Amino acid sequence: MEEVVDTSDMDIYPVWPVNVDSDNDPTIDDFDACAPPSGTSLGVIIEDVSDEDDKKWHTSKYPDEQGAGAPISAAPKRTLFHRIRDDQILRGAEIWGPFADKDEWEMAKWLIKNVGHKATDEFLKLNMITTKARPSFHNKEQFLKTIDGLPAGVPWKLETLTLRGDLQDSKGKARTEELELWYRDPVECIRELLENPIFCDSMKYAPERIVLDRHREVEVINEMWTASWWWELQQILPPGATICPIILSSDKTQLSQFRGDKSAWPVYLTIGNIAKGTRREASSHATVLIGYLPVGKFDCYLDSAKQFARYWVFHHCMNVVLTSVKEAGKTGIMMTCSDEHERWIWPIVAAYVADYPEQCLVACCKENRCPLCQVGRNERGDNNPCLPRDAGQTLDMIQQHLSGISDTNFTKDWENSGIRGVPNPFWHDLPFSNIFEAFTPDLLHQLHKGVFKDHLIKWCTNLVGEDEIDERFKAMSGHPGLRHFKTGLSSISQWTGAEYKAMEQVFLAIMAEAKVDKRMVIAVRSTLDFIYFASLHSHTSHMLASLSHALDELHRVKDVFIKTGE
Smaller CB count within 10 Å for the chain: N or C? Predict the structure, then answer.
């Protein structure tokens, strides 16, 4: 089936950043390359333009006979949120129940978010509160009991993990350490997201293909359901299956302190059925917390064994957290969606968002290797094609390594692969998932900080000189939307993503007419082109070709930094 949006005499165009200095101003990360933009509305942004050629936005639906994303029956089903409201009506409760009214609900929300238990008790006993506000709860105990009366979300589970190390205590027994894994059932979290009526207008259940031009040569990739992954996977699953792409993310830099000296790092989940603009809004709550991975001290292990123990604990805990996903991904599971229709949902891990060190941790590879492909550690700066990592091959090599059975050839292959011998990585039995294709780019560390700040700026500074670079930044005239580095770069002590992006906007102009080999300017332009193309949230097949061309151009002239810098 094909849906055609006729945009005759209309212009569909990209929007570019105007300011990176203010937190309230848009940046390159906030815009797409072409319509339709992200957000709860799935329509296109259009503007009347005269004397333009006819343009059509062609959307190809997945064949109806396959029943992709189709409801199991036409009969509507009540969602969890509707059932909660029905229960309130049957009990004669107000919509703000168990609170008396909206004002009491707002006060309770403020207290639970900002005030501790002791201060809450003191606040509720203030004369002004007891005589004028007169809430239905008069002390901390009553307040917490009222909070407990609210409809509960997916409950938390606790699993205690006891580690037995290779060190012994004074009695000759193996030292131990107990770790706590707190997690929620991810399948039930998915059910809660799919049932939420708030997401009804921004939800998709089947793959689509979008082309931008009249000749259908320019493909648009702007949402997960417009990518080839979903379409190709849909062909493998039985008719009537609805794919629910799971997007996992973890961030070890955001540690949470538990009781005592225990700490953990969070794991989050969202789904690709929800439009990316909605997912990115913190206020939409489209991304949910599903677990806290424990961070142990591992004092029961020898120093040489501590790091391996950390790898094992991470993968063991992720195995536990994702148990229900693995089961549901084999045969699917019935769920009611936000449009009040029941579907045959297949939850499948599609993406994993993490910074580069965590990508290596997930992929079971060393941090001087690529978590996606088999490129050698000394060949990562080359522009040669290389084989992607293969999950089956990786698991076979890990199993053979752990068995201790090897020969000279295997030992060489093992060293070249950069694989870490972690038994049973959490992704080893994820249905229909390839973890090596799931990693999303780490734009901040890999491009803005890595390629641009740590490499390009350093190379250009070596060629032109630090003083000259500073003078060029100082000489830049002020312009609305562009940051003026009045003291140059050498005086900057705190580098953040805002500084990197602000410099990227003017760096090509800074390096123009520098008294060095002109190929350096080509290298700067190509690098910035690549960064800007990679930062867009919507792509076309032409844009991806341009991104590839920018990379080829950089590699064509990159030797200027070697030859000129000698």
Answer: C
